[in-house]
Amino acid sequence: MSYGYSDVTVPRAHTVGRLETPSVLKFEFSPNPAKHIVVASITSMGSDDFFGQLRAESGRLSERQAFVFVHGYANDFHEATRRAAQMKYDLNFPGLAIIYSWPSVGSESAYGLDADSIEWSTDNLRQFLRDIAERSGAEEIFLIGHSMGTRGLAAAVAGLTSNAPREISARYRQLILAAPDIDRDIFKDRIFPAIKAAGMNVTLYASDRDKALDLSKIGRGPGRAFPRLGTTSPSPFVAEGISTIDAGPVDTSFWGHRYYAENRSIISDIYYLIRGVPVLNRFGIEQIKDPGGGYWRFKQ
C-alpha cells in the first residue's frame, strides 16, 4: 500500500451535490480553483508518518471523528480524492476525511478488470481499516462505500469484525453502503452475519432507478444477472440489523447511481445519520411495512 496526503480546494461558489469540473462546453480546458474542486497537491509518505499525521490531526479535533471513503468502479485516485473533499464539505464533517483508493482502471469499459481489482484489494483494505482504528487517533469512524467499492468494504469489515478485538470494531460507528454492486445472496449469507454479530450499524441506500447497476448485469456476462444489493427491484433487501432506505423517489438523475453525493435530500440524510439521529426521526423519510420486513423510503 502507498500512503499520502492531498490538499483539495473547493470554490466559494460551490453548489451542494456538485463535483465542479472543467467543461469544454464552457470553454474550460483546465481546472480553475475559483470554479472547480481541484486537487492542489499530493504528498507521498511512509505508513508511520501517515498515521502520525492522522494522530496529530485527531488531537486537534474537539470530536475525534473520521470517515473512510471507498470509491466505486471506473473512478481513479484523482476523482475519488475530489469526491471525498466534496463530501466532507457538503456534510460539514468536522473530522478526518480518509480515502482508500483501490486500483480501478478508471474506465467504464473495464468492469471485469475493476471487479478483479477490488477483490484483490480486500485483504489490504481490511488491514487498513484495522490500522485506522488502532493508529489514527479517531474514536468514531464512519465507513462510506459506493458501488463496486462496497464489495471490498463490506467483505473487509466482515473479516475485521470476525477477528479484531471488540474495542477495535466498536470504533466503527456506521457502515454506509451506497448503491452497492454486491450480489444479494453473497451479502446475506457470507458477509452480513459477521457484521451483524459485531453489532455494527449498517445503512443501505438503494434505488430502482439505478441504470448503472442494471448495466452491470451486462458486464457480468450472460446467465449471471443476479439481483444486486443496491437495487429495490423486484423488492428492497431487508434484514434485521440493517436500515434499508429507498432513494428512488428523490433521485431524478439520468444514471441514478451517484445520488449519495449528488442529491441534496440524501446528502442531508447522511448529514443527520452521522450525527446520530435515528432514521425514525430524520426528515423526509417514511416507513414502509412489507411482508418481507420493513424498510424506509424518501417521500416524493
Question: What would a concise description of this structure say?
Answer:
The protein contains 9 helices and 10 strands.
For the record, what CATH class applies? Alpha Beta
CATH topology name, in short, is Rossmann fold
CATH architecture verdict:
3-Layer(aba) Sandwich
Structural class: alpha/beta
Tell me the number of structural domains.
Answer: 1
Gyration radius from CA atoms, angstroms: 18 Å
Which ranges are low-confidence, i.e. pLDDT below 50, for 5 or more consecutive residues?
Answer: none
Can you give the mean pLDDT?
Answer: 92
- CA(first)-CA(last) distance: 44 Å
In sequence order, what are the helices and strands, one letter per element?
A: EEHEHEHEHHEHEHEHHEE
Number of helices: 9
- Tell me what portion of residues adopts beta-strand conformation: 15-25%
Query: So, the CATH homologous superfamily?
Result: Alpha/Beta hydrolase fold, catalytic domain
Sketch the major β-sheet: 8 strands, mixed
Give an overview of the whole structure:
The radius of gyration is 18 Å and the shape is globular. Strands 4-3-5-6-7-8-10-9 form an eight-stranded mixed beta sheet, sandwiched between helices. Strands 1-2 form a two-stranded antiparallel ribbon. The protein has a single domain (44-298), classed as Alpha/Beta hydrolase fold, catalytic domain (Rossmann fold, 3-Layer(aba) Sandwich). It has nine helices and ten strands. The protein has helices at residues 47-59, 77-90, 111-135, 149-163, 166-169, 184-197, 211-220, 259-262, 264-273; strands at residues 3-9, 38-45, 65-70, 96-100, 140-146, 172-178, 202-206, 242-246, 285-288, 295-298. The N and C termini lie far apart (44 Å). The protein is an alpha/beta fold and 300 residues long. Helix 3 (111-135) packs parallel to helix 4 (149-163).
